[in-house]
Design a protein that fits this description.
- The protein contains 14 helices and 15 strands.
- By secondary structure, the chain is an alpha/beta fold.
- The strands form four sheets. A seven-stranded mixed β-sheet has the order 2-10-9-8-7-3-4, sandwiched between helices. A four-stranded antiparallel β-sheet has the order 11-12-15-14. A two-stranded parallel sheet has the order 1-13.
- Helix 3 runs parallel beside helix 10 and helix 4 packs across helix 9.
């Protein structure tokens, strides 16, 4: 063949680091704190709701393209309950195959070849691939360490906007750093978007996994309703990541645009699970408080253990990931460190450099997931103690 099978837009994207590190965990028998999925299922009543839908024949055939009405209504109730936002379930909600499809459909719909897309670096790896598939030009704005957290430089964000900028791809609570953008930072982003007439696609899948602060949707700021595509999903909040049920909320013309792309991706998906997620979104406040406080305890368990092992730890304000700096351990190459860690300690982590365009900026940072059973985290902490000794 005169030309490689994989097209140029995706030539830079091989097997994901998550697949590589998960395979390494299996091969070595190491504890997998690399990939972000819980090791226990979510609420039993939600699982039973899915079984009930299957048995009742709800969703076993193609559901409606925008999503089943019960879930679209539940999404609108959720937005009103938590944020005081009024959303029309018929024109302003679209159900997707997880947040990943929502991001892909949004970028494919809204970005023309050559448009610039600003993304906060480090970023979830699918962002880069989706921008590439849309023919856009990725423009990273780097979150940098500031004490025990990472911060967005608003001047750098403003300087990144050009006449070719189409949209800002925002993620808060932020994976992998655990940063939760403040009210003032979000207000500045909103002002910039209005001033420069930009769209914003905002990934808010960790909206309920915040510690000591409240999540504020960007769409709630002045001038943002008509220019914001808000994305969330059930996987992280309810610990059913395999169900892949996500949603888009936006003004009708934006939802119509995103649906135009989405219908040629999966078309529809997860029929019975949509009914179950509708029930999940209506769970009492005690559920949401419980998962947040449970994860806070797990965060602190792992963060303290990583500190004792010699890492510099950036204690997250949200998500279920901890970013660490390996330089206090005498290491600088996150890739080499993560590939050797299973043999050295029996633990798997992920190098943050895979989430950077400027990989040198991310080289000394390594991410651990704490969405695991406390017994597993305790065992991992025990194994990691050997690093400090060596």
């Amino acid at each position: 063949m005169g030309r490689p099978p994989l097209g140029r837009r995706l030539a830079a994207f091989g097997t994901t680091i998550f697949a590589e590190m998960s395979a390494l965990a299996v091969r070595t028998g190491a504890i997998n704190l690399g990939q972000g999925f819980p090791d226990t299922d979510g609420p039993e009543e939600v699982r039973e709701a899915a079984v009930r839908a299957l048995r009742d024949g709800r969703g076993n055939q193609y559901p409606p393209g925008p999503g089943v009405p019960e879930l679209r209504t539940a999404v609108t109730e959720h937005q009103r309950r938590w944020y005081g936002l009024d959303v029309d379930p018929d024109t302003e909600v679209l159900i997707t195959a997880g947040a990943t499809e929502a991001i892909a459909a949004s970028l494919l719909a809204l970005v023309e070849p050559g448009d610039e897309v600003i993304a906060l670096e480090p970023y979830y790896d699918s962002y880069a691939a989706c921008v590439a598939m849309a023919g856009g030009v990725r423009v990273p704005v780097t979150l940098r360490p500031d004490g025990d957290t990472f911060r967005l430089d608003l001047d750098e964000l403003r300087a990144a906007v050009t006449d070719r900028t189409r949209l800002i791809l925002l993620n808060t609570p932020h994976n992998p750093t655990g940063t939760v953008l403040t009210h003032d930072e979000l207000a500045a982003v909103a002002e910039l978007a209005v001033e420069r007439d930009l769209l914003v696609v905002t990934d808010e899948v960790y909206e309920h996994l915040v510690f000591g602060t409240a999540h504020t949707p960007l769409v709630s700021f002045p001038g943002m309703r008509e220019r914001t595509v808000t994305i969330s999903s059930a996987g992280k909040t309810f610990s059913f990541t395999g169900w892949k049920v996500g949603w888009v909320t936006a003004a009708p013309e934006l939802v119509t645009a995103v649906r135009s792309a989405k219908q040629y991706l999966t078309y529809v998906s997860a029929g019975p699970f949509q009914y179950a997620v509708a029930e999940a979104l209506r769970l009492p406040d005690a559920y949401f408080d419980g998962i947040r406080e449970g994860l806070r305890a797990k965060r602190d368990l792992l963060a303290d253990g990583l500190t004792d092992a010699g890492f510099q730890v950036f204690r997250p304000s949200g998500t279920y990931f901890i970013t660490t700096d390996i330089r206090p351990l005498g290491e600088t190459d996150g890739f080499a460190f993560c590939r050797s860690l299973p043999e050295r300690c029996g633990v798997v982590a992920v190098p943050n450099a895979v989430f950077y365009d400027h990989q040198d900026q991310g080289s000394p940072f390594v991410r651990f997931a704490f969405c695991k059973r406390e017994s597993v985290l305790t065992e991992a902490v025990g194994r990691l103690k050997g690093l400090a000794a060596s």
